[in-house]
Amino acid sequence: MSEGRRTKTSSCRLSAALSLLYLVVMPTVGAGIPIRCSHDLIGLVQYIMDKDKDMNSIEERLYTPEITDFEVFVVSLSLGQKCPYSTLNCFTKEMKVLMYHSTVEGIEVISKGLDHIPKQEDSVHCPQCEVHREKPVIAFLQTLKQIMQRMNAQSCR
After folding, report:
1. Are 43 and 114 in contact (CB under 8 A)?
2. Where is the signal peptide (predicted)?
3. How far apart are the first and last CA of the chain?
4. Distance in angstroms (rounded) separating the CA atoms of residues 65 and 90
5. Is 46 helix (H, G, I), strand (E, B) or coil?
6. What is the secondary structure of 85-139 as a DSSP string?
7. Distance CA 75, CA 143 (A)
8. Does the predicted model carry a pTM greater than 0.85?
């Protein structure tokens, strides 16, 4: 075999290997879009929680995912399935409900901040927002704050 043909064959194999690597790796890269840091939003959530008497006067109850929904949703087959995006989408939707029922300053900023966190589709096995228990506003905000702290612990290193 001539030197030129051997180089062409090696080049074709390398191209094929790189193409295969691209097809295998790229879908997993897209699926792992990092959730950005949100220190300012945590401070705003705390500020709103400190307006305790205003928050307690709101009788509205909000669908509230749990921290475990953010980290792991256990499917009936006992396979762990992370649902961070559907959890964040639920908090985003419910913040809009809270914005409608409250005049407390800062709620709109949190809602817009949650809108800017990159989200994508989770597994079809992740629960819809309406499946979560309805909780008082303060409990909703406490859970939101805890989840945002977890997000920061994972992505703000």
Report:
1. no
2. 1-32
3. 53
4. 7
5. helix
6. HHHHHHHHHHHHHHHHH---TTHHHHHHHHHTS------TTSPPGGGSPEEEHHH
7. 22
8. no
- Return the bridge partners of 61, or none: 136
Which tokens hold the place of 37?
């840091």
Q: Are 48 and 107 in contact (CB under 8 A)?
A: yes
Condensed to tens digits (0 to 9), the pLDDT of residues 25-74 reads 333 333 444 455 667 888 889 988 887 666 777 788 999 998 887 775 44
pLDDT at 77 over 50: no
Q: Read off the tokens for 52.
A: 């305790």
Give pLDDT tens digits for 81-109.
578 888 888 999 999 999 888 888 888 88
Amino acid identity of residue 149, one-letter, is Q
Q: Which pair of tokens denotes residue 74? A: 């256990």
- Residue 81's H or E segment, with its range, is strand 80-81
Give the Cα separation of 72 and 66 in Å (integer): 10
